[in-house]
Queue: 3 jobs
Job 1
Amino acid sequence: MKKIYLLLIICSVIMYRCNNKKEAIPKQTILKGKVIKRGYSSFLQLVKKNGNYRINPINIPIINGEFSYTLKPDQVQGYQLAFKDELDRGAWMSIDFFNDADTIKFTLYPRENYQQNKIVGGELNKKVTTYNDKGKLLFYDRVELLYATKVDSLRKIKQWDSKAVSDINVLLSNEKDRTKQRKLYKERTKLRDVKKNLTTQARVIQNEIDTIMEEFKEWNANFIQTDATLFGYSLLMDKLYRNDNDPTFDILVIEKELKNYQNRFKNHPYTVTSNNLINGIKNAKVGGFYTDISAKTDEDKMISLSETISKNKLTLINLWAPWCGPCIAKDKLLKPEYSKLKEKGFGVFAVVGGIKEKKKFTETKEKYNYPWKLNYELNQEFKVWEKYNISNSGGSQFLVNSKGKILAINPYPKEIDSLLNLN
C-alpha cells in the first residue's frame, strides 16, 4: 500500500504548465471512452477533483466496453473518474482530467496497467499527459525500480518492518476492540516519526525513496510558484487537502502562493474552498479557536454552533459520518458518561455529514439513539468538514471551552471530565 501511495502522489498531482490565459468554459463536455480488458467493471463514478465518492457521485454505465456522459459545467475545473468495483473494495485509482474541451476521449485499462490510460481532448489534458510522462521518467521509474529490486525482496523475507512494528501488526491483526486499535496505530505512528519503524537495511532504501520524493516536491513547488493557471491552482489545492500527511507543509508559503491564484481566479470554486481549508488548518487545532458553523436540526431548522458553546462550560464539536467506524466507537464510549458530564456543564454539538439525503440521517439517529441532539448537513452544503480541516476523513471531535478555545481533539471521556473539573 505504501508503494502505491508514493507513486500516486507523484502521478496524480503532476501537471504541465500552459499559457497565462483564462480557460474558456465549454457549454458542455462530452466524455466518451473505451474500457480495455475490464469485463468485470460495470460502472464508473464521477466527482469533482478532491470530491467524495460517497456523496452524490455520478454513475456512468459501461456498456459493451464503452461509456458516454455529458457534463454541463459552469466552470473549468478538475474532475475524477473511478471504477465502482474498485471503490466498493476501498482501494481505487482515480483518473484525473479537466473539462476544457467539447469532447474528451478516454482509453482505460485494468488497475495494474493504469499507466497506459489515455485522455485525449483539451489543451490542459494534452499537457497533463506530456508532463506526466516527464514525471514518470524523473521520479516514478526510479521509485518503481527500488521497489522491484529491493523493497519487495526485503518484505518477502520479512526484513522490511522493524521488530517493534511487526509485533504491533500482529496485535492489530487479532485486535477487534477499536479503542485498543487506535492506541496500537498511534504507537506505530510514533515509531515511524522517530524512524524506528524499519530494519537497518530497509532504512537505507527508504532514505533513497525519501530523497526522490523531496526532489519531486521541490519540482512540484517550483511549478506552482511560477504558474498562473488552473493547473497550478489545482496542484495547490492538492497540497491543502494533503496538509496533514506532509511534514514539510508550510502554511506561510502556501498562503503567499494562494494569494496570487485567488486574485486571478476570484470567482472560481477553488477560491472559496481554499479559504475554508486555510482557516481550518490555522484554527482547528489545540490552542486554536472554533469556527462557527451551521447545520439543520431534525425539524429542519438552522442552528449555529455558537448558540451551543455559549450555554456550556465545555462543548464537544462532534462531526461524523454514518460510515465512520472510529467516530461511532468514540461516541459509544461517550454515551454512558454523558449524563454525568452534562451535570458539570458539558454539551455536544453534533453534525452528521457524509450523507446525501435526510432519510440516512433519520436512520442513523434512530439506530444509535444518543442522549444528545443530532444535526445534519446534506451533500456538504455547509462546508463543515472543509472548515475543520477534515475533508479527507469520516469525522473528528473538537473540545472547546465557553470562549471557543480548542482544548483537545478526539478526547476520551476521562479527559473531558478532568478538563471540566479545571474549568
Job 2
Amino acid sequence: MTQTQDRQAQSYRWVILGAAFLIGFMLVGMRETLGNFFKEITGELQWDREKISLVAAINLWLSGLLQPFTGHILDRFGARWLFVVSVTLYGLGVAPVAFTHSFWYLVLIYGVLLGSATAGSSISLSNALVAQWFPAQRRAFAISLNNAGVALGRLVLLALSYQALMLYGWRQSYVYLGIAILVITIPAALLLPGRRRTTANAAQVARQQRTARAPLEVAHWSASLRTTPLWQIMGGYFVCGMTVNLIIHFIPFATDHGYTHGEAVAAQGTMSLAVFCGSLLAGLVSDRIGRKNVLGLAYALRAIAFATLLLWHHWLALYVFAIVGGISWLATPPSVTALTGEIYGMRTLGTLSGFSLLSHQIGGGLSVWLAGWLYDLTGGYDISFTLATIALVAASLVSFSIAERRYSIRYMPADVPTTGG
C-alpha cells in the first residue's frame, strides 16, 4: 500500500464516521420521540398501554431478527446500498404513521416496515463499519463519537418533536419527521463505502491483512457461537436492550407521578446531554482500562439509576436517573463492538455485531411490551423497574467475568504472526 493510498484511507474514515453520525442522529433520534407521543396516541385511539408497547416490541424484535443477515451483507457487499435502501424505507415509513387509525395498521407500518428498515442501518452496523476502518488505538473512541450522534439526535429530536406536538399534533409531526429523515440520511448513506474497490477501500483491505489474527478468529462466523465470550457479551447486551428501551415509558411514568409533560421532556433532555458525555467518556476510558470493565461499570451505574426511581419518590429522582443512567446509556456499544472485533477479528464483525444486536433487541422488545402489560395489570411500573435493576446487577457481574486479557488481541505479544502472510 502506498503512502497516498494510506492518506486517502485515513481521510475517508472520517467521512464514514460523519455519515454514520448523521444517520444515527436521525434514525435513533426519531425512535426516541415515541415517548413524547405515547399518551396522545393511546388517548386519541383509546388504546391501553400494552397495545402500543406491543407495536414497539414488534419493531425491536423484527429489527433484531434481521440483524445477523444485514450484518452479513455488510461484511460481504459493503455498506452503501444497504444503508441507502434502509434509510429510504425508513423515511418513507415514518410519514404514514400519521394516518394510523387501527392497531393492525400501526403494526404493519411501525412494527414491520420500520422494524425491517432499521435492521439495515442500525447503530450496531454503523459501529461495526467504523470499527473496521479505525485502528485499534482509536477504535473505541471513534465508535463513541458515532454513538454521540445518537445522543444528540435524542436531545434535538425530543425537543423538536415536543414543540411539533404542541403546535401541530402527533400526526403532522410524523409527516415532518419522515421528510427530514429522507432529506438528511440518503445523501449521508451515499457517502459510505460500497463493494467497488476504490483506492481507499484497497488501502483499508491492505491494513486489515496486516492485522494480527484475533485469538478466537475463525474461518466462518458460526464457529464463534460455540465460544463463551460471545455469549457473555450478548447476555449483557440482552439486559442493555431490556433497560434502555424502557425509556419509551419514561415520560408516561413521570406524568403519571404528577409531573407535567414539559418537565418530563426536560428531564429526558438532561438525560440526552448525559448520554452524549457518557458516550464520549466511555470511548476514552475503554481504550485505557479495558472493554469489560466499562461494560461492568455501565450496567452497575444503570442499576443504581433504576433503583433511584424505585426508592426515592422526589422530583430530584428524575434528574438523578437522567444523569446517572444517561452516563451509562451509550457507554456499552463502543466496548461491545471493540471487544467483539478484538476477540473474533474484523472480517466477520458485521455479522457478529448483528447477533449482539439481536440479543439487545429481543431484550428490548420483551421489556417494552411487558412494561405496558404490567402497567395495565398493576397500574404502575414498579415491577418492570425492579426486574430491570436485578437484571442489570447480573449483567454487571457477567461482564466483569469476561476473560478479556486472555482472548483480546490488545493483550497479545507484539510479535504474533499476522493474517494474510
Job 3
Amino acid sequence: MLVAEWHSIEGGTMMRYFRSLIFCGLLCVFISPVSPVSPVWGGEVLDSCDGKIGALLIDNKMYYEINIQPEFIFGQLKMGLDIPLRWNDEDGIRKEDWDGKEDVATIFRYVQWAEKKAKPLYFRVGNIDKATLGNGFIVRDYANMSREDTKKEKNTLTPHKRTLGSTIDFNLNAGGLETIVNDIVSPRLYGLRCFVRPLTTMPVMQNTEIGFSYVTDTKAGTNTELKKDLTVYGMDFFIPVFREYVTIYGDYADIKDAGNGIGYGIKGGFGMIESFRTDWGLGYRKDDDNFIYGLFDSSYEVVKPIPTAIKTTQNKVACGNINFNIMKAITLGFYYEDAKNSNPYLISQLTVDKNVFHAITKQRIGVDVFYNQKDIKESKKNITLTTQTTYGLSDNIDMVYSMKKYYDNEGKFFKTSSMSTNVKF
C-alpha cells in the first residue's frame, strides 16, 4: 500500500502542499497496477510493504517525505519498519532525522513476540498503543506517543517523531511479571506488576491472580521544566468464577503525595455466536479527591494530569462499561463513571468497517471515533478526540482523513490532522 499524505498547514505553504499532493497522486496511479509480492528469505516472510509519500510541516518548515514501511512475520515474531527520508528545497535532506541514537533506533516501528498472555514470553518494542497492567486500575490502554521533542526539550506535539517504548511480560503457571517503559532510549516512565496464582491446583479457580504494581514518571506534568516525580503503588486481584463469562476483581492504589483509591466489581462477556459479542462491567470505588483512576491511559502522554495534595473528601464512585461487537465489523463501547463529590467521566468509541457501508450503498466508507473526557463539566480540559474517515474512490484506492484534538489539564489546545490517499498494490 502506498500513501500520499497531506498534513494540516497554515499560510503560504498551502500551494506547495497541494503541488506535493498532486505529484503523489500521479505517482500512486503509476505504481498501483503492480502485483503484490511476498518473498521469503530464509524463513523471514515479507508480510506487507506499505509506504507514504507526501509532505509535512516541522518547526514551520515544509518537508517532502518518503517512508517505506515493510512488515515481516516469522512464526511468533513480528517486525515493522519505518524508514523515512525528508527534504526540502532550502536545506536538502533533513539531518535531524538521522543525527542521534534515537533516530536510528526509531526506524523500528515495532518488534513483537507472540500476543499478550498467549505465551510464557511476550514483548513488544517500539510503538505502544494499548498497554495495561492487571485490571487497569493504574495503567489502562497506555500509549507512549509523546508530545515532547527530546532533542530540543519542546513541549509540543511531534507527529514525525516515534518513541521507542517496550512492554515485556513473563506469564508462567505460578505467576509472572508485566512491565512497561515509555522510551528505552530516554526512559522516563516505568511500570512493573508482579503477580502470583496461588490456586493453580483448584479446577475452577486456577487462574486467580494476586498482583502488586509500581509505576513512576520521573518528569510528570505538561511543563518539561517541571521535574516532579509521579509515583503510584497498588495491589489487585481477580477471580474467574465461570470462565470468561463472570470475573470478580478488586484493586487498591495510592498516588504518592496525592490520594488513594479502592475499587471492586464484576465483569464478563457473552455471545450467542462468535460474531455477536457483548462485554460488560459494573464497579464501585472509593477515591480521594486527587486520585485518578486509570491515570496512565491512552491520553496520558498528551494531557499529562498531575494529582496534587490530599484533601479530606472521599468520593464514592459508581462506574460501568459495555461494549458491543457485531459481525466483527461494528464495535461500539462506553465507559462512564459518576460520583456525588466529583464530575462525571466518559470514554466512548465507535468503529465501523468500510465493508458495512459497501454492503448497503456499494460505497466503501469506514469510520473510527474515540472520545475521552475526564471531567464532563469542564468543557475544555482533559479531552481527547480522534477521528478517522475512509472513503473508497475505487477498488484499490481510498481517501483517508484523520484528525486528533487534545485539551490538556491546563486547557491548552493541540490539534493535528492529515489527509491521505491509500493505494493497495
